[in-house]
Amino acid sequence: MTDTTAETVKKTVETAANTAKAQADKVQAAGAKAFREVADKSAASLSELNVQGKQNLEALVASATAAQKGVETLSAHSAAFTKKSWEDGVAAAKSMSQARSIQELLELQTTWAKSATEAYLAEVTRATDVLTASVKDSFQPINERVTASVEKFQAAR
């Protein structure tokens, strides 16, 4: 082989090596860029997942707080109604014990039974209203989270 042929081969090999190295560098850079993008997206997704989890937990706490408030309200109403019913019953018993005739006793008993039934029905209505409001208030934070999640998923489509 002549020196020029050797030089030509050497230059061809160097050019091929440089081209291969440049291609390898491009592939490596593209791979690193793709890896960074995937890592960034994963980190963003994990961050969003953490935010969603926190918001869901806050909604559950708000729901439990509203339910507890409803239970406290129902308990207070129930205790007050029981006390008043007892007092009304004692007063009615005293009144009936002083009746002078069977007719008067029956009238007192009928009046007391009617007022006790009306008071009971009013208390049931009030308890139903409190329970309905409590359930509505308890589910509101959860419903808001479900709605927000559905909207987020639909927007991501």
Walk me through this protein's architecture:
With 157 residues, the chain is mainly alpha-helical. 96% of the residues lie in helices and 0% in strands. It has helices at 3-97, 102-156. The longest helix has 95 residues, at 3-97. It is rod-shaped, with a radius of gyration of 41 Å.
- Terminal residue distance: 66 Å
The oligomeric state of the chains shown is: single chain
Helix content: over 70%
Large-scale geometry: rod-shaped
Structural class of the helices, strands and pairings? mainly alpha
Task: Give the low-pLDDT segments.
Answer: none
Mean pLDDT: 89
The ordered string of helix (H) and strand (E) elements is HH
Question: Hey, roughly how much beta strand do the residues contain?
Answer: under 5%
Secondary-structure blueprint of this entry?
Elements: H1 3-97, H2 102-156
Helix pairs in contact: 1-2
What would you say about this model in short?
Helices cover 96% and strands 0% of the residues. It has helices at 3-97, 102-156. The longest helix is centred in the first third of the chain and has 95 residues, at 3-97.
Which keywords apply here?
mainly alpha, 96% helix, 157 residues
